[in-house]
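Sanity check record (used in CI):
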Amino acid sequence: MRTGVLIYKDVLSSLSPEAKKILGLILHKGAMTKSQLAKVAGLKPTTLNRMMLPLEKADLILPTETGESTGGRKPVIYDVNPRRYYVIGIDISRLYSQVVLTNLKMELIEKDRFDMDRNSSPQATLNRILDWIGRVMEKRGHGYVIGVGIGTVGPLDRQSGIILNPENFEAQGWENIPLKAIVEERTGLPVIIDNGANGAVLAETRYGSGKGMKSVIYLNCGVGIRTGVISSGTLVRTINDADDTFAHMVIDVNGKPCHCGNQGCVERYSSIYAIMEALAEEMTPEEMPQGKDRRNHKADRPVSYLELCREAEENDTTARQVLQNAAVRMGTGLANFIQLLNPGLVVLSGPLILHSQLFYEVCVEAAKRRRPWDKGGHLVFSRGGAFEENAISIGAGALVVEHYLEPETFG
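Expected output for Sugar kinase of the NBD/HSP70 family, may contain an N-terminal HTH domain:
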C-alpha cells in the first residue's frame, strides 16, 4: 500500500452472512461486550466467537474499552474500528452539492459543500467533486475506502446509475447523466446511487435520531419536497424511484395546477418556488419595478428565499404571512402522510426548514392539530435530525455500507 493514500478494498462483500449480521448489530446498536452481543443475536458464545473472528482479523471491529465487572474479570467492549475503513458520500441537489468522507460509523471526517448555479453543469459539478475526492484520498493516510454513494434528485434509473430528467436545476444539461459510470471510471471505486432522501432516512434510522424505530419519515424541503420513508424496517421505493411521493399529495382538489398534471399538490404551496411565487402575488403594482419579472424582483420585498426567511423571523408582516400559509399547507398534508404510515419519527430538513424556525414550528403545529394518529403522544418530530445539512451526503455513504450488509434490500 502506498503511504498516505486511501485505497479501495472490497472487505465487506467477502464476509459471511453471519459475520455481516454481527457487524450490523454493532454498527446499528453501538459497542457491546460479547455477552451482550450473544444475547442480542441469540447465539451461543462459541458460535459468536467464530462469527467475530473474521471481523477482528480484518480490523473491522476491535476492543475499545473494558466494561464494569460483575465479580470476575472485566468484560471487553467491542466497537467498529473508526480509523480503518471509510466511505465517500455525494449529495447532488438543486441549490447546493456536497461530498463527505465518513468512517463506517457515519462519523463525518471531511466535507466540501458548494452552491449550485447556472454554471454548475454536470461536468463542472462532477469535476469539483472528483477533484476533492482525489485530494482527500491522497492526503488522508492509511486506510481503505469501500465505496462511493451518490444521493441525488430523481427521477433515476437506479440500476444503471443514471439521473434522467430532473427539474429546476439552474444549469442546463442535467438530462440522462451516467453518474455511476463517470464516478467509477474516475475513482476506481464501486458506486451506489439512489435518491438523496432515501439515503437520509436510512442514515437517520440506522445511525441517527431514529435508532431502534421501525418507521421513519424524512422530508427535505427545498426547491422541491423530497421524501424518504422507512416503514416496518423496509425502505419504501416508488415508481421510477421518484422522490416526490409526498410532494404530489393533493391537499386542495380545486387548487393550483401542478406540473405533474394534478391540482393542489403540497409542492405547489410549500416548496421554495411556490413560496416565492406566493410572495410575488402579494406585491402591489407600486412595489414592482417597471420592466422586471415580478416573480424575482421587488422594490422592498425579499428577492430570495433566504431573505424571505430572515424577514419573516424579523416580523415582516407579508413575509411572515406567506411562510405561515405555506407551512400550514405543508402540515396539513403531513398529517395525512403520518396517518397513512404511522411513523415513530418525522424528520423535517432541507434548506427551507434549516433556515426558518418559523416554517418548521407552524408546520409541526398544523400537523399536530390533526392528530388522531398520536393520542398516546409517541410520535417525535425533529428539525434537521441527527445529521442536519449533512443528512443526504452521509446517507449516501450509509447506502454503501447497507448495500453490503443487506444487498437484497439496498442493492
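The domain at 17-67+75-80 is CATH 1.10.10.10 (Arc Repressor Mutant, subunit A). If this sentence no longer matches the regenerated C-alpha cells, the check is flagged for review.
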